[in-house]
Specification:
The protein is of the alpha/beta class and 257 residues long. The chain has a single domain, classed as Phosphatidylinositol (PI) phosphodiesterase (TIM Barrel, Alpha-Beta Barrel). 26% of the residues lie in helices and 18% in strands. It has 7 helices and 9 strands; from the N terminus they run βαββααβαβαβαββαβ. α1 runs parallel beside α3 and α3 (90-102) crosses α4 (129-140). The relative contact order is 0.15. It binds SN-glycerol-3-phosphate and calcium ion (CA). Calcium ion binds at residues 34, 36, 118.
């Protein structure tokens, strides 16, 4: 089972921060890191899960209504004794992860790691976000290490149009819904099976594995299973493996590696 850090090491450190990513990138054996991107009012790519800043900072309102300068004045809530953090730009995160992404060679024992960039385009469409992220990834020279995911099929199609060799992650709550969207992408847009992975909620592996044999299935533990609190209690991942899951996104990957 391949282990990914969900929003970085986000159980112990604040999610989607440079600290959570730095902790994750140094875990031996980690397959990759997952993060979420949104766009500011002035079109900057920033790494934050929610469309609003309310939950993770002292601010109020939508990311899309803040300029990058305004957003950078906010402080991310951190734990006792932890340094104050700002919402990172995607470029800052790429700069941090670059050596690890560059050294990803596709092998099982690669020294490098991958990066799963989730485009948060389902609630707010963010025109131009696909072009911007693909351009940044290209500029950094790490296309081979990236998986782009989204709940919005239109975003995945756009990424494919810009970069036909990009690996896509089809997000949905249940595996059956991921499979439905994936087959649609393969048939209507002539995408190759090897370039699309299924990213279902881990609690809803609702098809027998024979239905999706040979496909990459990266489960995230939405709803009742996730986050896997309390800390230091390990989940049994074997039953997911038996159900056909190949990879998992975990908030506390350090506990499993
Ligand atoms: O990419 C898997 C997972 O991150 C999707 O859900 O809400 O944590 O972004 P969410
Ligand atoms: Ca996500």
């Amino acid at each position: 089972m391949k282990i990914w850090a969900h929003r970085g090491c986000s159980q112990i450190y604040p999610e989607n921060t440079l600290t959570s990513f730095e902790k994750a990138m140094n875990i031996p054996g980690l397959a990759g890191i997952e993060l979420d991107i949104q766009l500011t009012k002035d079109g900057e790519l920033v790494v934050i899960h929610d469309e609003r800043v309310n939950r993770t900072t002292e601010g109020y309102g939508f990311v899309k209504d803040y300029s990058l300068n305004e957003l950078r004045k906010l402080h991310i809530f951190t734990g006792i004794g932890q340094e104050s953090e700002k919402i990172p730009t995607m470029r800052e995160v790429m700069d941090l992860l670059l050596p690890k992404l560059k050294s990803y060679d596709g092998g099982e024992d690669s020294e490098g790691i991958r990066l799963n960039i989730e485009l948060k385009t389902s609630s707010i469409r963010y025109p131009g976000i696909e072009e911007k992220i693909c351009e940044l990834v290209k500029e950094m020279g790490v296309e081979h290490a990236i998986v782009y995911s989204s709940f919005l099929i239109e975003s995945l199609v756009k990424i494919h149009d810009i970069c036909p060799t990009a690996e896509l992650g089809v997000l949905d709550d249940a595996l059956s819904n991921c499979l439905y969207k994936t087959i649609l992408l393969e048939q209507m847009w002539n995408m190759q099976p090897g370039t699309i992975a299924l990213h279902p909620g881990g609690g809803k592996i609702d098809f027998p594995k024979e239905f999706f044999a040979g496909r990459t299935v990266r489960a995230w533990f939405g709803g009742h299973l996730y986050p896997e609190a309390p800390t230091n209690v390990k989940m049994d991942l074997e039953r997911f493996e038996l159900a056909g899951v190949t990879d998992v996104f975990l908030n506390e990957p350090e506990k499993y590696l």
